[in-house]
User: Fold this.
Amino acid sequence: MNLQFVVDGLLTGSMIGLGAIGVTLTYSILRFSNFAHGDFMAWGTYATLAVVGAIGAMVGKVAPIGPFSFGWPLLVALAVGCALTGLLALALDAMLFSRLRARGQSIIVVMASFGASMALRSLLEFIFTSRPTYFSRAIQIAMPVGFGIRITPDQVALLVLTAVLVAATHLLMTRTQTGRSMQAVSQNPALARVVGIDVARVVRATWLLGAALACVAGTMVGILVQIRPLMGFDMLLPMFAAAILGGIGSVPGAVLGGLIIGLAEAAAVQFVGAEWRAAVSFVILMAVLFVRPIGLFGVKER
Assistant:
């Protein structure tokens, strides 16, 4: 039996899950659905690509690291891209979202995020055009690992990176003061203020963490597939589905939801047909929500 779809699903699910972490944190802490989150992914990827190009212009062509398709410039550029994406998220919050949140009407903030998404996407297309681009055009040879599965070194590296980032994010949320403050604000912002938690600092940490993970997820898409201005928009609905499926506010739930969505989409392509890819994942989402409306790891509000 050919199980190649399992690897494809895990890779897709990893990208969706990393993006869904930002979606679930934004909703649980800032109390609105941020439709611009997918565009943070695209902007972060293009920022990383631009830094890679700048490093290449300064130092010349750099050999790849071992069997991978990328060299050290991509690693440096990814760190810079995460920082720049975080700054973009903070700037957007300062100019738009924070002002609207103060009015206390979440639907206005949601619609503003939808408008911001369109503006960011159009600006990105204006700057870089709609033509797809790539981090590398090198062709990697997939290694057979049994059961009809073939996997490339890049895919292995990205799966390992996802596991490390998810573990680090979980430890941040559960073992650090910042993470505990984020959980407190998500449960009761007013009470968090009363006990002395700096809510503004928590909001900044939420934007920075979500935007950085979105940048990493987008860069993964760029390495494995291609880079396009619409890449974040295409991932938006699966990310929201993963966040809801896993339970709003749960980092492990967002990642598990992403993996379920990714595996469902890959299985649909393998056994049903590519045209059913999105439909199957949402059928699973609805089925789970009928059984457990708060999601897999969600907690009922008191």
Q: What stands out?
A: The beta strands are 143-146, 149-151. Residues 19 and 57 are 31 Å apart (CA to CA). The chain is about 75% helix and 0% strand. The first strand starts at residue 143 and ends at 146.
